[in-house]
Amino acid sequence: RIRAIHTFGRVFDAYQRKAIALRDGACVIPGCDVPAAWCEIHHVDEYARGGPTHTDNGMLLCWHHHRTLDTSGWQVRMRGGVPEVKGPFWWDAEGRWRAVTRSPIRMRQRARSRSG
Question: pLDDT tens for residues 6-18?
Answer without folding.
Answer: 556 678 899 999 9
